[in-house]
Every structure is written in structure tokens, then in C-alpha cells.
Write a structure and sequence with these properties.
heterodimer, A: alpha/beta, Oxidized Rhodanese, domain 1, 13 helices, globular, B: mainly alpha, Sufe protein. Chain: A, two-stranded antiparallel ribbon, 6 helices
Chain lengths: 294, 187
């Protein structure tokens, strides 16, 4: 089957950058392609060891992408070490997939973009679709010859937002998307009163933010992304975003919002979208931050 | 490592999980509140089982627990499950149900709607097996830290919060009954 045929379904959906997605069949055809590295990244760390796509390696969010001391991502040296261990070069096409509608796969994808590894894709539908299609899974962990990966310094300026930038953004009444659940957005308690809420001291949302739960961008039955028309209906018709907008997305720690960042940036072609990874665990705990709570 | 008991064989939880001699049987016999500060014996046994396990071993053990998970039977709860039973902050859509035993303790049941929620399934299997039939005074005092002793301290914040959410609902159910009991009502 030709490359075009393998990706025809994605090409037909009207995305701005359809090349950033591949189908499960494309992955199946490229399992032994030495220029492709399949990377599983999950919210649930038990999934990869339980079974994964043959030849896939794992990037563990907690262990591989975070600085072990500070609340921050790995630095250049850490990223180079990780990718060298995975046997990846700057020319390797990395294809991410994972659980929960590719939520953590897009998170890993986002971190890879901080280091400019643009040769990256996401397997549409993620682990759910692969499993539903009864494609092969294994517990065998592959080993690849280590490489000497050379990365640029991490660039936090383009796609990452920090708290003070979010404050300025808010004061300028620019667009923000809070991708948490409606209950988190409203600040309403979602459980028993005697327990703290999500590890934060205050509930609510950043003033001016609109709420679109991240998973609405995916089809729940197979985890694939909705087509461009469906996504525009959500983000443009419902909350009034426009492709030329300067947008910040946030959630609790920046993982769910990386999914929305991916959707707005690659599938709808927005030019200026940043992920505020400090998100509500920073905002809701910081002293004196403005909060909107209906 | 002994055979993990899901809900299906909860009543049969008897002698194959160490330390069997220390474990309070989950079925039969009046429960003793004993030292309310102590971890219920079956849960303490599981914590002990994980103590010192390296990451790989811990993962294997948790996968085994997840494999033993049995969803709540239709006789207890049917879909759509009520929001009131949903574990807060759990992205695997876990639901927790409690039914009363004649001796005043609870049977605990779980549903995990996300088929890929292995950690939630493992935790549900452990909670169901180790807290069902245990004194409510002990159930409400199970510390959240128990989760990290079993799952390890390197689990993500989101995952930890979801598992804590499951424990929250279990303890809420136990606390509710204790309050009723304190008010003089039937349990």
C-alpha cells in the first residue's frame, strides 16, 4: 500500500498539517523501519510493561521528561541522554502513541518540540485504536544501539507560557482555554468536603478563560481526532477562537492542555498557541492570583 | 506471590497471601476494631509484599492485581453508574460501591470504565480484597501514603490523585456509616 493510501483517511479530514498524524496501519507497515522509532507514552505506567506495539520504546513522563529536583522539564543534557538511550538521531521520525486519546503522547510530543525535534508524529487513535483493531502487542522490550543525540538548548519561548506571561495575557484580554472538566473550571467541589481539592488551595479558573474539556477533540469510540470541521465547531463556533489569535491553554499541570495545544497548532493551524504547564496547580496555589469563580 | 483475589473470590481470600497468619479474614466472624490506628491486616500484608520491591517487580505485581480485577456485578450496580459513586480526579473513570454486611462492615466493589486504566484496576482489586469486611474505624484511617507504598513514589501527580480519589470514596462510605452509627441509627 502506498504512503498516500495509508494516510488517505487523515488527509481527508481537512487538517492544516495532516502530516503530523499517521494511521495505525502506517505504523504497522513501519514497525521495522530503522528510520522510525515508535514511542509509547502513557498516563498509566503499567500499560507499556503489560503490552505494547512490537519494537516500541517507552518514554515515561515522570521519569524521563521531568527534572528530578525542580518542577521543570529536563535540560538539554537530559534530553540528549534520553534520546541517545532510545537510539534516536535528529533524523529519526519519532511516532508517539499512548493511552487516553493520546493525551500523554501529545504531552511528550510537546516536550520534544521544546527541543526542536520536529520530525515527530502522533499515531491517530493511540493505543485504544491499535488494541481495538487487534493488532499485535508484545511484552518484549526492544533494545536499540545508543546514539549520540545532539539537541539545541530548550526553547521555552514559542510554545510554553509561564505564570507572569499568563498574567499579562489575561490583562490584555487575550484568549485562554481551560481544558479541565466543567467541575474543575467552575471550582465546584467534585467530592467530599473533607478532602482537599486536587492539591490546590483555591478552585475556579483564570479570569477570561473559556472551558473546553480536552477530550472533546477526540472521538471517544476509538480515540481518533475529530475532523477539522468538528474541531472548528468546538473551538471557533463555541468559544470564538480564531486562527490568528494568541492562545494559551492550561489544565492542572499542563498535560491535558498539551493535547489542546496539539489540536489548535497542527490540526487547525493556529500560529500562536502556548501551553501553560504551571497550570492550575501553580495558579490556584499562588498568593494573590485573580480567580474567577461563578 | 499468591493468587490475587478479585471480587469474585473475595470471600475465599484465606491463606495464600502472606503473612496469612496476620490477616483478618474478610468473610465471617465479627470484626474487631482493635487498634483503630493500625492498617487493616490484609492491606498491611499487601504493603509488606511490596516493601522493597524494585520498580520492575512492583510493576509485575501490580499488573497481576489488575488482571484479577472483576468489575462490580450487576446485582450491586448497573450502568449508567451514578456520579455520586465516581472517584474524583480519576481519569480512568473509576466508580466505587459499598454494600453493607450484617456485621456492620462493608463489601467494596469497583468499576473502571477505561479499559486501559490498569492502575485503577489494580488499586480497585487491592482495596476490594483488603478492606472489605474490615472494621470501619480502620478503613477510615487508611493513610493516603499507602498508595505510594504500593505504587511507588514516582507515580505521576495525576495518577496519584486519581488513586487517592478512589480511596476517598471508600472512606466516605465508611465514614457515613460510622456517623450514622454514632447518631444511633442502624448501620
Amino acid at each position: 500500500m502506498s504512503e498516500t493510501a495509508l494516510l488517505a483517511d487523515i488527509a481527508a479530514r481537512g487538517y492544516a498539517h495532516p502530516d503530523v498524524l499517521v494511521t495505525t496501519e502506517w505504523v504497522a507497515q513501519n514497525l521495522k523501519n530503522p528510520d522510525v522509532r515508535i514511542i509509547e507514552s502513557n498516563e498509566d505506567s503499567l500499560l507499556y510493561p503489560a503490552a505494547h506495539i512490537p519494537g516500541a520504546v517507552q518514554v515515561d513522563w515522570a521519569l524521563d521528561l521531568n527534572d528530578t529536583i525542580r518542577r521543570d522539564y529536563v535540560d538539554r543534557a537530559g534530553f540528549e541522554k534520553l534520546l541517545g538511550k532510545l537510539g534516536v538521531t535528529r533524523n529519526t521520525t519519532v511516532v508517539f502513541y499512548g493511552d487516553k486519546n493520546n493525551w500523554w503522547a501529545t504531552y511528550a510530543f510537546w516536550v520534544f518540540q521544546l527541543f526542536g525535534h520536529t520530525n515527530a508524529k502522533v499515531m491517530d487513535g493511540g493505543r485504544l485504536k491499535w488494541e481495538k483493531e487487534n493488532r499485535p502487542m508484545t511484552r518484549e522490550v526492544p533494545t536499540y544501539a545508543a546514539t549520540k543525540y545532539q539537541a539545541p538548548e530548550r526553547d521555552d519561548s514559542r510554545i510554553r507560557a509561564f505564570r507572569d506571561e499568563v498574567v499579562s495575557h489575561m490583562r490584555a484580554h487575550k484568549k485562554m482555554v481551560d481544558v479541565r472538566s466543567p467541575q474543575e473550571f467552575s471550582g465546584e467541589r467534585t467530592h467530599m468536603a473533607e478532602y482537599p481539592q486536587e492539591g490546590v488551595l483555591r478552585g475556579g479558573h483564570i479570569p477570561g478563560a473559556k472551558n473546553v474539556p480536552w477530550a472533546r477533540a477526540a472521538n471517544p469510540e476509538d480515540g481518533t481526532f475529530k475532523d477539522a470541521a468538528g474541531l472548528r465547531s468546538i473551538y471557533e463556533n463555541e468559544i470564538g477562537l480564531k486562527p490568528e489569535d494568541d492562545v494559551i491553554a492550561y489544565c492542572r499541570i499542563g498535560e491535558r492542555s498539551s493535547h489542546t495545544w496539539f489540536v489548535l497548532t497542527y490540526l487547525l493551524g493556529y500560529k500562536r498557541v502556548r501551553n501553560y504547564d504551571g497550570s492550575w496547580t501553580e495558579w490556584g496555589n499562588a498568593v494573590g492570583m485573580p480567580i474567577e469563580k461563578p | 506471590m499468591g493468587q490475587r483475589g478479585g471480587h469474585a473470590d473475595r470471600e475465599a481470600l484465606s491463606g495464600d497471601r502472606p503473612p496469612a497468619g496476620d490477616r483478618q479474614p474478610s468473610g465471617g466472624g465479627a470484626p474487631q476494631a482493635g487498634d483503630a490506628e493500625a492498617l487493616p491486616a490484609p492491606l498491611a500484608a499487601v504493603v509488606q509484599e511490596f516493601d522493597g520491591a524494585d520498580r520492575g517487580m512492583r510493576t509485575e505485581m501490580l499488573i497481576e492485581y489488575a488482571d484479577q480485577f472483576a468489575s462490580v456485578p450487576a446485582t450491586v450496580a448497573m450502568r449508567p453508574f451514578p456520579e455520586s459513586a465516581r472517584a474524583p480526579r480519576c481519569e480512568s473513570e473509576a466508580y466505587v460501591f459499598a454494600t453493607d454486611r450484617a456485621d456492620g462492615t462493608l463489601d467494596l466493589w469497583f468499576a473502571v470504565e477505561n479499559p486501559q486504566g490498569l492502575s485503577a484496576k489494580a488499586w480497585g482489586a487491592i482495596l476490594g480484597d483488603t478492606l472489605s469486611g474490615q472494621p470501619l474505624e480502620q478503613v477510615v484511617r487508611v493513610p493516603q501514603d499507602t498508595i505510594f507504598k504500593i505504587f511507588g513514589r514516582d507515580i505521576s501527580m495525576g495518577k496519584g490523585q486519581g488513586l487517592i480519589g478512589m480511596l476517598d470514596v471508600v472512606q466516605h462510605e465508611a465514614r457515613r456509616r460510622l456517623q450514622r452509627r454514632g447518631a444511633g441509627g442502624a448501620v
